[in-house]
Amino acid sequence: MGRYVFKLPDVGEGTAEAEIVAWHVKVGDLVQEDQNLVDVMTDKATVEMTSPVTGRIVSLNGVPGEMAAVGSALVELEVEGAGNVKAGSAPAKTEPAKAAAPAPKVEAKKAEPKPAPVVHAEPKAAKPAFATRHEDDKPLASPAVRQRARDRGIELQFVPGSGPAGRISHEDLDTYIASGGKSARSGGSALAMREGVDEVKVIGLRRKIAESMQNSKRRIPHFAYVEEIDMTELESLRAHLNKTKRADQPKLTVLPFLMRALVKTLPHYPQINARFDDEAGVVHRHHAVHIGIATQTANGLIVPVVKHAEARDVWDCALEVTRVSTAARENKAGKDELTGSTITITSLGTLGGVATTPVINYPEVGIIGPNAIIERPVVRGGQIVIRKMMNLSSSFDHRVVDGFDAAEFIQKIKALLEHPATLFMD
Hints:
alpha+beta, Chloramphenicol Acetyltransferase, CATH 2.40.50.100, 3 domains, flat, 4-stranded antiparallel sheet, 10 helices, 6-stranded mixed sheet, 30% helix
């Protein structure tokens, strides 16, 4: 038998490390060649690491949330034959794995709280004192204990006291709460007070999202602008196109029309279709329009990219939006599909609300957020009529985009959407 050490390969161009997201094996498992061992993440893309050999897991290096350097040992296996580690050098290489795999210690710590019989023992010890208290007797307790009980809606009459003459202490109150005692306010199990705190470590994609949002808000002075748009005519056109479309054509949402409006307007505002390298002090104004589509997935918010939207009609835009967003939700989007956007659209769909203040997708300088389309009474020609209205929210990097230009840009978008025929005119 031999030892085989599987090292983290280069999972992306220029990548020096990757985050361990989830292990799919444990020590002692017999794994087959090409079996998934671990998921690692870099640049918002999760990559499955498969075993290059068949063997038994001897040790695992790292826990979810830790960073692993490219070339570092991830897994050690016992294999048939010589393996890839010499007998003399194997212990030195596997020592860190044994030291870094604190599974036994973690298990020991988890086992520590389990002597919870102590919690159950206290009420039993307190019962004799409680038994000596008559129904009409006033429970004995300090003013601090009484105030704390009032704050929690607990009747001290029902709390066993372990002190002299059944006096109730803070510890007695803690025991009563921990044992699930009902409060005066509870009125039944449905309204019973709940205790406890769940600790959830922020790792994987959620940590990437948190870092990205923090980076955007820290580095970019956001300028927000919201405009009201009458979508009645566009919604009529959209309904007609969906009703008369071919079987091989996708159903149209508002997004392809908004993308079309961006494509027509951005050439007049090149400073908005841009990425700002603030460290170098250089704004890269792009001729191509690569639109990021903020997509909610089971793992969090991901922004796949529709490349070259300027070369697509509304049908093609709809197809590509569906393709890249589906790939993102199924965790199948490649690095090229998740990078390179020059402006982003973020939409909450039917949950679009009245208005939002979207966070710019750094290092871009603009983001557009359509809100819900709602029928509202508006004044047209001196008459109150019902129209389908939508607020279009947006944010811009005020270092690169002046407020006047941002407002004018959104006004041009508004005009195109309110007169949808102009979306298709040169």
